[in-house]
Amino acid sequence: xxxxxxxPVAAGTRASERTLAVALAAFLGLxxxxxxxxxxxxxxxxxxxxxRHTQNFPCH
Amino acid sequence: xxxxxxSAALAAGFLAAVVVTGLELTLTSPLIAxxxxxxxxxxxxxxxxxxxVLAHAGHDHAAPDAAPEWQPGxxxxxxxxxxxxxxxxxxxxxxxxxxxxxxxxxxxxxxRALAFAVAGFASVALAPGLGLPPELPxxxxxxxxxxxxxxxxxxxxxxxxxxxxxxxxxxxxxxxGLVLIVAPHVTGAPLPPEGESALPAALAAQFAxxxxxxxxxxxxxxxxxxxxxWQVFGRKPAQxxxxx
Lengths: 60, 244
Known about the structure:
heterodimer; A: mainly alpha; B: 6 helices; flat
């Protein structure tokens, strides 16, 4: 992989914006995956059942 | 950048979900339905002796005293919920892919995002699949909590290992990365209890292979889609003011 980085971070606001974007995306992403793949609620399990099996989430 | 990241993840997730839902419905859902017939038979037999209420109420039609849990109706509703779950999972993975790329300071292009996505596939599908192969309903398996814990640990460990090897690249990092990747398999996945499953081995093998293949397509599309969408969504606002 070539080591090309994002545009140099000039101002502090840019860096904090990136941190915020990363944190927000990580939080939302983990939340969605928990809902689709891990949530123990029976209704959610049953709704996502075939997806969980196909994507190899441990299921029942 | 926040809007761009969220939009790109939504677009990539949607793209991957459309294709992969089609693959799931044609390749794996029929196998799951076939396996459930064996599982239901087993449940019927078990119910005569023990009042077992399996957590897996979706197939527990025979349990007489269990409260009926909601589940999507067979046919179209079930397909629709599979599609919805695939969309939710795809957007979730795409968000994490974007978060990891930005955290590593890599500008997402289709090629670079594809490389990260392949690493994602290796962490989330391949590595846990070595210890816990994709399984059909009705297969013998260890307790759910133990498997979920091992799954999460393996994914985190493999992801961190790949990061150390591919991004950090110092000798110490590479050695540490290898240890992290191998460690969960040395520890070993929770083993299924002894016992014969009524499920034909050919069905289970076919399912495992298809599942991994679909997982690869899923991740490849999320990667390519995310890189593409990141570039597209960066173009318009970049006319006047510098973006990113």
